[in-house]
Each structure stands twice: as C-alpha cells, then as structure tokens.
Design goal:
Layout lengths: L2 H26 L14 H16 L4 H13 L3 H14 L4 H13 L3 H14 L4 H13 L3 H14 L4 H13 L3 H14 L4 H13 L3 H10 L10 H7 L5 H13 L3 H14 L4 H13 L3 H14 L4 H14 L2 H14 L4 H13 L3 H14 L5 H12 L3 H14 L4 H13 L3 H14 L6 H14 L2
Helix pairs in contact: 2-3, 3-4, 4-5, 5-6, 6-7, 7-8, 7-9, 8-9, 9-10, 9-11, 10-11, 11-12, 14-15, 15-16, 16-17, 16-18, 17-18, 18-19, 18-20, 19-20, 20-21, 21-22, 22-23, 22-24, 23-24, 24-25, 24-26, 25-26
C-alpha cells in the first residue's frame, strides 16, 4: 500500500525536471546551425565558422557572439544564414545598432528596400552620429525616386562629417538626378579641391560638365573617373571584411593592396598565406616581390636568394631582386640582377625595360634609350617606354620632343600621373604657363598620391610666379 504514492509521484518530479531543463534551454536561445551543413567550404572558412559557432554555444544568450557569427557568415558569402543569425542577435539585444545595420544592408541587397529603410530608421535613432547609416538612407531613398528625403539624409551626413566625401557626393547625385548640373559641378569642384583624385567624384563631375557643354573638361574627368566607384568609409562594413577567409580571397586582397601601394598590409596578408602554404615556392616569390616593390631589398633578398641558390634560372626571383635593389638605390646590385634577367630571357620586354632603367640611373642614357625603343616596338600598347624617353629628353632640354613622348604615353594611359607632370614641366620650360598649370591640376586629379607631385608642383608654380 505504501508504494502507490511513490509511483504516482514519480511523473510529477519527472515533469518538473523536464520543465526546468526546457526552461534553461529556452534561456540559452536557439542553437546555431552546424557549419558542416553549409556544403563544400574552403577549410579556412570552415575553421572560422566552427570557432564562432563554438563561441555562441558557450553562451547562446550573448547577442555579440551571435553578431560575430553572423559577420563570419556574411563575410564568406553565406548570406541567408547570416541574416538569420543577425535576427537572433537583434532579438537578444535590440539596443545594439550594428546587427540591425548589417541586416538592413542584406535586406537592401535582396531588393527589400522598405524593410531595409525600416531597419535603418531604428539604427539612426540608436546611433545618430554613425554617418554611413545616413548616406545609405540617402542612396535608398534616391533609388525609390524620393529626392527630398534623399537630399535630407545626405545633408545630415554632410553636417555630421564635413570632411567625409560621402555626404557631398550624395548631394551631387541628387542634383544630377534633378538635372541641377551647375549646382552639382560647384559642389564636386569643392570636394575635389579638398580631395584630389577621388575617382567617383570625377566621374560625377564629368557627367555634370558634359551636360553643361564643357566638353574638354568633361572628357578628362570622365576618363580619370571611368573606374570610379563610391569608396565611402563604413567602419561596420570594414569589421565584416576582417572575417573573410580562404586562400584565393586573401591573395586577391593582397594583390589589390600592392597595386594601391599599401605594401605593409599586403606583406602582412602574404605572410599569413605563406604560413598556410609553407611549401608553395611561387607564393614565396610573390612575397619577395612585394618586399622588393616596397623598396625593402634586404628582406626581399632573404626570401629570394635561397630560391635562386636552388634554381639560378628563376626569372621572376631575379627580376624582383633587380627592381628591389633599384628602388633601394643599390645600382651595382640592380645592374647585376637586371643583366642576368635579360640574359635569361633576351626577348622579354619587361627585362629590357628594367635593364634600361638601371642604365639610365647609371647615366648610360644612350644604351637606356635603345632598350626603351626596343621595348616600345615589342609592345606598342605600353606607355612606360615613352614616359621614360620623355624624361630623358626633358633632362636634355629637348622639351618639344619630350612633350611628344609624354603625350604618346598619355594616349596609351590617360591616367599616368608622371606623364601629365612631364607635360606640365615642358610647358613651363617653354613659357606656356597657363597650359602648365592645367596639366599640373590634371596630374593632381589623376594620381594624387604620386610621390613626385609635390616637388613638381613647387617647381612649376615657382616658374609661373617668376615669370608673371
């Protein structure tokens, strides 16, 4: 008779225990998806996502962990999963604007502009000083044809960050959309005076000039700005980019950094890749070449000399050492490697140009000219031999011949800042100071980071002032 109550009581205690466990599970939040279900991913991406997922599972109530996992997913192209995890992060902490901002961008990317704007309205309430939220509102309102709201959003961005090109560029976009071309041109000219070389601003300015009938100025602005895309600062998007993984993605990023002359960042990325693939000789050569391009010849040699010791006929390693020593000013070593590279591949135009550069710096201009002429004949599309020949002719005070060479280089690459500076120098040397100033201003817009720009500006403006 005593056992019956115990039998009846057991289901009560079981139900209580189950209830407690279920409640605890609910408090911890939903379970993140297993990265193994996402298909065939780069191993580096899989490793990252497993680490971020494990962090979420440690505390599923933590919105920041969900947000970091969502950023990892977004950065590596898993956008549906990212949106779902941003939603969890928002549910866990609705006062953190970053997760709602990221979800808004994903919604806009899917064409859900109304939903994106709704999210962004909350973001600007939570983070009123975050300028990218304002100019993104401006772009989305402009996409919907609401120029009044678009202009208002861009103007808020200008007021919040007067030195940021995004707001000014956005205001110009609204003016252009309303055919207010003169107003757009005035604003863009002010922007480019403060930020020379902004490709996107030049593209917009070229459009305004063309509509205003200023065809010559339009042609130059549109040529320089032809590749322009809005490169407007957005720290929260930059944060996402830090989660990108995978060999191909990192190599592409390192290459672009090198092209942008951000050598330290490029080298840091390549060092990571070398750690991932320590036996990849081509990658080591590429890293050595990046050190050489940065003028860090000693570090380039530390990587490339062992490769040449194992394979003395390695052409790329030889070329990198020649250029690295040339940039570092060691002309004797540069000449040794450049001569060896040309001997390895006598018909190679790049080897001929590099040997010509070394000879020119050594004062052997006749031999350099012969190599540059041969390189120009071998590749008629290449502007560089003509640029260097123009420089040699300018040094010899043969200004009209030099200008013809510079103009020939520009016909092949209108964005070549050194050629524009050469044109400006030849005009100043022959007393055509107005033309010299025009060419100088174009050089500033075409290549504002050119290391020779400041000296050329001082030289040409001094000549202009002395002759007024």
């Amino acid at each position: 008779m005593t056992s019956a109550p115990e039998v009846r009581a057991r289901p009560v205690w079981v139900a209580l225990i189950v209830g407690i466990l279920v409640s605890a599970g609910c408090d911890r939040g939903p379970v993140p998806a297993d990265p193994g279900t996402f298909g065939d991913l780069d191993p580096a991406v899989t490793t990252l996502l497993r680490e971020l997922t494990a962090a979420v599972n440690t505390d599923r109530s933590d919105a920041a962990r969900w947000g970091r996992l969502a950023m990892g997913l977004e950065a590596n192209g898993l956008l549906v999963q990212a949106a779902a995890d941003y939603a969890v992060a928002i549910g866990r902490n609705g006062k953190e604007p970053r997760w709602r901002y990221r979800r808004a961008l994903l919604r806009a990317r899917r064409g859900e502009i109304d939903a994106a704007l709704a999210d962004m309205e909350v973001v600007v309430t939570l983070a009123p000083d975050y300028v990218p939220a304002r100019w993104r509102q401006g772009l989305w309102f402009l996409d919907r044809g609401d120029t009044a709201k678009s202009l208002a959003a861009f103007q808020v961005a200008v007021q919040a960050a007067p030195g940021d090109p995004a707001g000014h560029g956005g205001v110009a976009l609204v003016h252009l959309s309303k055919r207010e071309d003169a107003e757009a041109a005035v604003g863009l000219e002010k922007l480019l005076a403060a930020r020379p070389g902004d490709r996107y601003a030049l593209q917009l300015l070229g459009t305004a000039y063309r509509r205003l009938g200023r065809e010559d100025a339009a042609r130059f602005a549109l040529t320089v700005g032809s590749t322009g895309q809005p490169a407007w600062a957005d720290p929260w998007s930059d944060e996402v980019s830090h989660y990108r993984r995978g060999f191909a993605v990192m190599l592409k990023e390192a290459t672009q950094l090198g092209l942008d002359r951000k050598f330290d960042q490029a080298i840091a990325l390549l060092d990571q890749l070398v750690t991932l693939r320590p036996d990849d000789r081509a990658l080591h050569v590429y890293l050595g070449g990046m050190y050489a391009a940065a003028g860090r010849a000693t570090e380039a040699a530390a990587i490339l000399d062992p490769i040449l010791a194992a394979d003395p006929s390695h052409f790329d390693a030889t070329m990198h050492l020649a250029s690295g020593n040339l940039f570092a000013g060691d002309l004797d070593k540069a000449a040794t490697y450049a001569t060896r590279a040309l001997a390895l591949r006598p018909a190679n135009a790049d080897a001929g140009k590099l040997r010509g550069m070394v000879l020119w710096q050594q004062g052997r201009t006749g031999e350099a000219e012969a190599l540059f002429d041969a390189a120009a004949a071998a590749d008629p599309r290449d502007p560089m031999p003509h640029l260097w020949m123009g420089m040699i002719l300018g040094q010899q005070a043969r200004y009209l011949e030099a200008r013809r060479r510079f103009e020939l280089a520009l016909s092949k690459n209108p964005l070549l800042g050194d050629a524009l500076l050469g044109v400006a120098d030849t005009f100043a040397a022959t007393g055509a100071f107005a033309a010299a100033e025009t060419a100088l201003k174009r050089a500033e817009q075409a290549e504002p980071a050119n290391p020779r720009l400041a000296a050329a500006r001082d030289r040409i403006l001094a000549a202009v002032k002395a002759n007024r």
